Amino acid sequence: MLSTLQEQLKEVVVQSLRESHKSLKEFPPVILEIPNDKKHGEFSCNIALQLAKPLKQPPLDLAAQLVVSIQKNIKASPINANVQKIDVVRPGFINFHLSPQALYGTLSDVLAQGENYGRASFGKNKKIQVEFVSANPTGPLSVAHARQAAVGDALVNILNFTGFAAKKEFYVNDEGNQINILGRSVELRAQELLGEKVEFSEDCYQGDYIRDMARIYLDQNKIKKAADLSAKADHIRQFAVDYLLDVIKKELDDFGVHFDVWSHQSKIGTQGNIEAVLDFLGEKGFLYEKEGALWFKSTDFGDDKDRVVEKSDGNYTYLTPDIVYHQNKFKRGFEKIINIWGPDHHGYIPRIKAVVEALGYDRDDVEVLIVQLATLYRNGQPISMSTRRGQYISLREVMTEVGVDAARFFFLMRRISAHLDFDLELAKKETPENPVYYIQYAHARIYSVWDKAKELNLRAKHADFSLLNNEEELDLLKKIGQFSGALVLCAEQLDPYALVNYLHELATIFHRFYDKHRVIDQDHALAAERLALLDASRIVFANGLRLLGVSTPKKM
RNA sequence: GUCCCUGUAGCUCAGUUGGAUAGAGCAUUUGCCUUCUAAGCAAAGGGUCGCACGUUCGAUUCGUGCCAGGGACGCCA
Length: 556
What we know:
By secondary structure, the protein is an alpha/beta fold. Helices cover 50% and strands 12% of the residues. It is built from 20 helices and 15 strands. The structure holds one RNA strand.
């Protein structure tokens, strides 16, 4: 693998540095980066530029001295065959050019590892909980939830592939004000259906699905008269929550997002648990009473104002059960908590960090990722959304209109901190404007060649690839070798979008190779090696797209 | 007013955590299918990296201050 070779080369540089500059007790970190221009080789090191000032020597001279020592050390090491040449270039870069042998090694690795190719131990089995979507069960999922779902799902997939032990969790807010309003909305619609004149206030949920639920409720319970609805409020509310939760689960399921754990506020934020955690905070002196309410001194932990936990009317605020929930997360043994929220919750971050610290945990062990909104466009016109008025595009609509693959891909295309413009018409197009197809097409092309090869009884080799030596083949091999690095970058950034970019670049390099060279060649020895290259490409496309939750069609 | 996100080609965006001549796609112009999928490839044009200072060998990247767009700031959830 290229990343291990990168590590080994780095060790050699460090060792050479120690030998050639014994006087130097400390030196800046040695970094081997991948240059953006391939004429600068596979890896580039800037250490000479960094040392120029402390050593008061021109960087070019320093680099030249260092290279002598590096070359000597490489000759004596097992990686000698993998390094073709080492250059010293203008300001003072040391560039490493790998030999084709180094790249053939990755090809054998990919073929041997198959669907496990790209796995890394980077995460060291750290237990991570990723909570995302967590929409109130008060209506179908919106497009905002859809992006969070796509991001959370892909992120956890990547984290697990790079060596973390990550779990997907959905927190169901099945209690509180919004849920009461939901119950009331359904109840009013039910009365209406039974011929009553009702005042349906602005606060109530306006969507048609409320009326549908009311109808189903009446049917299920065989209620014919408005009078029979009296004293049914709790029953109706529970029905509505259960019903909508099923809708949400089905939507997510169809979207390919499957949660490991569904937590319910009604089970975790019980009266007993809330009292216990408030007692705990009270004993620590983090609570006080003012104006008939109970306040949490979150300003002690960096928040800009204190927060009410128990209102003067005796009810708890939204924060209070959330305190219990976050304690619960840590009690379950997670070493890191990741919450994926919408931008409307960003003001909530200092509060929850304060909570975590007050509970005695490390505030840095909770990380909040704010996924910016996706603005939907149709023919260039933005579509505005409001849950309350029931005017919004749902996840369901996006899914049925553009398909799961395009939807998931589009939601992941931009880094999560950036606003996303999502044009439904563009995502629907089966043209080169649409980047999903560009990548899937590469995958499908491979299968097409594969079928042809089978007819001719040609098979891929598994070792010894000395015939792969033109520019396009070596570029493709190089890119394949960078797969694991791209995944680790995603894990570090806690954002899957770098994988999307990687796959797009891989597709570009693949298409270029495909266009210029024929795989099924008169020369069967060459064909066997190129088939191996194709198989390795297929594996990387498949592994990458699988992590993103995008399908890998064999025919298009 | 405080805080968060964003500002790179006509449009949508990359830029691998400070590197070398700032890159793709779309749109425009022009080539490439009797041979494995043209949903593809190749080429051309297109730039004050919002503005100004600062940090240093080097800044699109880091810091400060402005400018512009979007969003958040409840005893709502």
